[in-house]
Design a protein that fits this description.
Strand order of the largest sheet: 1-2
Structural class: mainly alpha
Shape: elongated
Helix content: 25-40%
Radius of gyration: 35 Å
Strand content: 5-15%
Distance between the termini: 87 Å
């Protein structure tokens, strides 16, 4: 018998005839003959038994994985406080401290880490253009006192 191997075909583990797996990629038997069907049933039973054995060996108590908070409770509280302070500071300082444009951003001269986020001593009302300029020209901004 001269048979070409077609891509995706296999040889049956029982009768050794080529077949194309229909049920799943791991199918080992052609299911054309009764003896192949019986062999397939036996093989599936063994696989199921292996699966059951593996599940028995799993630990009974599995720790629940809880995701970490993106923001700590302390920081979330600071953020709420900061929102109020930001609105009030922008209301009190409607113009950019560098030019006459309206305030869009609240610049932190000394960063936003820890308690400096809510310390108005480090706040500076600026327009978007000047806020970008401050962070792009750090040396000049430090000389002028806009960055500490």
């Amino acid at each position: 018998m001269n048979t070409k191997k077609v891509q995706g075909t296999r040889k049956c583990n029982c009768c050794r005839e080529p077949f194309f797996p229909i049920k799943n990629l791991f199918q080992k038997y052609c299911l054309k003959k009764q003896k192949c069907k019986d062999a397939n049933k036996e093989w599936l039973a063994k696989e199921q038994q292996k699966k059951n054995e593996r599940s028995k060996n799993k630990p009974k108590y599995i720790l629940k994985k809880t995701p970490l908070n993106r923001i700590s409770k302390k920081r979330a509280k600071q953020n709420k406080e900061y929102e109020v302070l930001e609105k009030q500071f922008k209301k009190d300082n409607p113009k950019c401290e560098i030019c006459p444009k309206p305030t869009k951003d609240l610049h932190h001269k000394n960063g936003r880490n820890g308690d400096r986020l809510t310390d108005p001593a480090y706040f500076m009302a600026v327009c978007r253009a000047h806020h970008n300029w401050i962070h792009l020209n750090t040396e000049e901004s430090r000389k002028k006192g806009w960055l500490i």
